[in-house]
Design a protein that fits this description.
Elements (H helix, E strand, L loop, with lengths): L2 H8 L2 H15 L4 H32 L1
Length: about 60
């Protein structure tokens, strides 16, 4: 057995419910959509940055 299988085996529906309840208590219902929007924007910017990095790497290799 690997470590990931053991860890994922311990996470059940009660643990997920507890995490969701804690997030609601900490941030409140009105703040969660704003947090998710910010997370989505950050992921999109990260993807764009990695794509631009790959494009510049290809251009540098083409010049050689």
């Amino acid at each position: 057995m690997n470590l990931l299988t053991i860890f994922l085996g311990m996470i059940g529906p009660w643990q997920i419910a507890i995490v969701v309840a804690l997030v609601l208590l900490l941030f409140g219902g009105r703040k969660i959509p704003e947090l998710m929007r910010g997370l989505g924007t950050g992921i999109k910017e990260f993807k764009d940055a990695t794509k631009n990095d790959d494009d510049t790497t290809d251009k540098v290799e083409d010049k050689k």
